[in-house]
TrEMBL record:
Keyword Acetylation: no
One matching Pfam family: Aminotran_3
One of the GO BP terms on file: L-arginine biosynthetic process
GO molecular function, a single term: pyridoxal phosphate binding
Protein name, UniProt field: Aspartate aminotransferase family protein
The UniProt record lists the keyword Cytoplasm: no
Keywords, alphabetical: Amino-acid biosynthesis, Aminotransferase, Arginine biosynthesis, Pyridoxal phosphate, Transferase
Stretches for region Disordered: 1-20
């Protein structure tokens, strides 16, 4: 913990200063040079001691990333860690893509302006125009922000206003994740995250992918004016829905004058093999949202994109224009330039086509591995480079002798192989994977979209070798790692 500065009168020979004395601050060089232990102590003292507990369980606390390039992190020991986590879909271009770095460097060298509140921004204007060009139909109007939650807040607000209902109710899905800011938290189906907070009370929950339930809800309550759905549920464990469902959602919303908001924060930006995942189904929502890879792995950028008519109904007059205009950092210069260059690289390098092709290779290899370990792997699913690997819950199948060992572990890990496998993939095979919010048996694979078949093979060979050790050895190894 910090030693707080004690306030003492300046010595007579100290130079006079008007402001407070400089506190004991670390410099950038100090930050870069922190050792793993000090970094961990500072995280516990000043960020989130409880979260550190989980990072320790997974062995993430032992890694200090010194640099990152392409598909790999490089740690303090020069170890190359293959990134199949991909920042939950935030790293389409991998780490430090040279064209993204160069665009940012040029922007800095030319001393361009950042904050776009007083004057118009050429960068925000061009990014909004590019997003409209990438979006089907008349999804033309853009609100820029700096996170997925902010983009989703803007999406829900524009839809609510344009719905024309005074007491507009909003439908969302079971196991949904739309962010943690107070508004969209009300649409995020997690008792843990919602906790004790006072939420927005106008929401209505239906099972994901169940058109009948959605139809019944919309028919039963004319105040329902907005339906908010992830096109592929990420936090729910990589869950999609068939084309018939999405076409039914579109038809239902049209019939009842309800607006459909498609949350594409995680599944959008080409990850599933189309720019938007809803494009697989031949439908266009009224409002959508992007974030994560929109910032090309270097900037925090989120965007709401609405159909022009919807936007104009909500904010189209001088009187209503400022109800939800961009926040201070919405459309900030270097972030916009980063996103503009990102969109150009995405198409120049055909990363969407690559996600489609390499994703098919990943699914094929995982299905082959599943066929050899049917008692361990329950399901392989997904599209493009958004893939879920679900393990069987082993709490009841584990040999009796091992159960007491597992019982001492954290509640979150019991019965869940994904934590054990994730931890050992990192420790023994230099591979990083992600977990899911609501289904502890699912590993989420969202590698950068620059991923090649050779990276898929590296990952799959590692998984194969780990599974070949058998459940008993995996559990024993993991439990042993917790004793050290
Ligand atoms: C589908 C979806 N919507 C919204 C969000 C919130 O994005 P952020 O964490 O940038 O606020 C996320 C984040 O994981 C997400 O997956």
């Amino acid at each position: 913990m910090l030693d707080r500065p004690t306030v003492t009168a300046p010595a007579l020979d100290e130079p006079f200063r008007r402001g407070p004395a400089k506190p004991d601050l670390m410099t950038v060089e100090d930050a870069k040079a922190l050792d793993v232990q000090t970094m961990a102590d500072l995280f516990k003292d000043h960020i989130n001691p409880g979260q550190f507990h989980f990072m320790k369980l997974l062995g993430f606390n032992k890694v200090k990333v010194e640099s990152a390039e392409g598909m790999y992190y490089i740690d303090q020991n020069g170890r190359k860690i293959l990134d199949f986590f991909g920042g939950f879909g935030s790293l389409a271009f991998g780490h430090n893509h040279p064209r993204i770095l160069a665009a940012r460097q040029r922007f800095q060298d030319e001393k361009r302006h950042e904050i776009a509140i007083a004057f118009l921004s050429q960068y925000a204007a061009a990014l909004a125009r590019n997003l409209a060009a990438c979006s089907p139909g008349d999804l033309d109007m853009v609100v820029l922000g700096s996170s997925g939650s902010e983009a989703m807040e803007a999406a829900v607000k524009v839809a609510e206003r344009a719905s024309g209902r005074k007491n507009c109710k909003i439908v969302h899905a079971e196991n949904s994740f739309h962010g943690k800011t107070k508004g969209v938290l009300s649409l995020t189906d997690s008792p843990l995250y919602q906790g004790e907070f006072k939420l927005v009370g106008n929401t209505y929950k239906v099972p994901f992918g169940d058109l009948e339930a959605l139809t019944n809800a919309v028919r039963s309550d004319p105040d329902i004016g907005v339906v908010v759905l992830e096109t592929v549920q990420g936090g729910g464990g990589i869950i999609g829905a068939p084309t018939a469902y999405w076409q039914g959602v579109r038809a239902l919303c049209d019939k009842h004058n309800v607006l459909w908001v498609a949350d594409e924060v995680q599944c959008g930006y080409g990850r599933t093999g189309r720019f938007y995942a809803f494009e697989h189904h031949g439908v266009v929502p009224d409002v959508t949202a992007l974030a994560k890879s929109l910032g090309a792995g270097k900037a925090a950028v989120g965007a709401m994109i609405a159909r022009r008519a919807v936007y104009m109904k909500a904010y189209g007059t001088p009187k209503t224009a400022m109800i939800h205009a961009q926040a201070t950092f919405g459309g900030i210069g270097e972030a916009c330039v980063t996103a503009i260059e990102g969109l150009n690289v995405l198409y120049d390098d055909d990363l969407i086509g690559n996600a489609d092709a390499v994703g098919a290779h990943l699914l094929a290899r995982l299905n082959e591995i599943k066929s050899r370990y049917p008692s361990i792997i329950k399901d392989v699913r997904g599209q493009g480079l958004m893939v879920g690997l679900e393990f069987h819950d082993f709490s009841r199948t584990l040999p009796l002798a091992l159960r007491p060992m597992v019982a001492i572990l954290d509640e979150k890990l019991k019965g869940s192989l994904s934590g054990f496998i994730g931890a050992l993939l990192l420790r023994d095979y230099d591979v990083l994977v992600a977990f899911t919010e609501y289904n502890r048996n699912v590993i989420r694979l969202e590698p950068p979209m620059i991923c090649g078949e050779e990276h898929v093979d590296q990952f799959c060979d590692a998984l194969d070798a780990l599974l070949a050790r058998g459940i008993v050895s995996i559990v024993k190894d993991f439990v042993k790692s917790q004793m050290n």
